[in-house]
Amino acid sequence: MDIELLKTFLEVCKTRHFGRAADNLFLTQSAVSARIRQLETLLSSELFSRQRNNIQLTAAGERLLLHADSVLAAWERARQDVALHNRHTVSLTLASTPGLWDTLLQTGISAIHQRLSDLVLRADIHSGDVLVRKLLERTLDIALLYDPPKAQELVSVPLTSLELMLVSSRPDQTPSQAQQHGYIMVDWGTAFQISHDQHFNSPTPPWLHTSHSRMALDLILSQGGCSYLPRRLVKPWLAEQKLFAVEGSPRFKRDVYGVYHASAAYQEQISEVMGILLQSARQSEQS
Which parts of the sequence belong to the HTH lysR-type domain (predicted)? Predict the structure, then answer.
């Protein structure tokens, strides 16, 4: 099957419009329609119900959608492996949630490249549920997660712990005062949300919810406010007194795990990468 047919199917799923899908794919609308008809012929199923200005997936289309991303990811992985240059031995894919990318994975990838220069890396950001699914489908080699998955096929290795502290752009704030001035809620997972809600009952809701800790930090530094952020991330700005710890506010701890499939290929390289991530996390904590 032509892999471009699946790419076109996914673009129509995303846009729910043949014309916009054509624009995004740099094709004509007739070419997009022809690809979808070809895919429907191959699968002997109608994938979209087409009504005026209303394109919906059929039951068959919904079922195909469950597999299309995985098929494309597996194809991309195979293409990268086949195209490896002589000096490169292995290609690995790493991913994390947005908050862990900002805090750990970005520096970890730099350390991996310095230590294992013959390794080809792909780095992505996904939600926790997507990371677990990709690990189980073996389209992802290593994921950084807050909570170890319950799946028996997956191996979870403790890497570090994040100390989350409430910081504000204003000094001498109480927790209630800080949260009334530009509070940004960063998604640090379900366990954090439960603990947070047990300690706080502020009548002023956060003005922004985000999964990106770096976004929250940049916004607070540029226009003021407060948020729960990792101590290792905000340490330089605390030292420069551009941010201030909110005294009397609880601090929360989130354990971080490196997770991989027990039957994954390239076990030796995965073990090496996990060791480098562990060392990088410890150095980041001590710096």
Answer: 1-58
